[in-house]
């Protein structure tokens, strides 16, 4: 898996950089998947391909994106809300994930009036002090825009601690649910990915 938004970072391994393995580990891979490929330029995609092929020329490369599907509300998790619910609203994206830019860009594409953001480090667990800080930002946004802002979080952040976010009541908190999709590219698509995966598993 390669994050298209930040493929190699500073080329250093954790904790000095974002890489979990050195680039030479690509030699062991059967498939390369470039994630968030829809959010980067064609030139950046080509640059990633070049690096991968220099290490393992024959490696099949697939491209994926996160496609927003629907929201559910923190107060009523069984109800699915259409993405259009965000139109003509002011939102605050709150996340503790590895690629907050991708999350924020996905929300912006849905079409709210204004998007603000608070990014925490990946895997961070929200604390009550963070809730106070988020509340303060919400008040500032409401004073500035005249709209009651909606808080948007990712499924990952909700799953990590679904209780702490309830302290933001009475503010509306929506969880964005997305699915990973393979982007057809150079004759490779979801069908060819599944066929290749099946073939590799059988071997």
From TrEMBL:
UniProt pathway: Glycolipid biosynthesis; lipid IV(A) biosynthesis; lipid IV(A) from (3R)-3-hydroxytetradecanoyl-[acyl-carrier-protein] and UDP-N-acetyl-alpha-D-glucosamine: step 6/6
Keyword Glycoprotein carried by entry: no
Keyword ATP-binding included in the entry's annotation: yes
E.C. numbers: 2.7.1.130
EC top class, as a word: transferase
Domain of life: Eukaryota
Sorted UniProt keywords: ATP-binding, Kinase, Lipid A biosynthesis, Lipid biosynthesis, Lipid metabolism, Nucleotide-binding, Transferase
InterPro entries assigned: LpxK
PANTHER family hit by this protein: TETRAACYLDISACCHARIDE 4'-KINASE, TETRAACYLDISACCHARIDE 4'-KINASE, MITOCHONDRIAL-RELATED
Designated name of the protein: tetraacyldisaccharide 4'-kinase
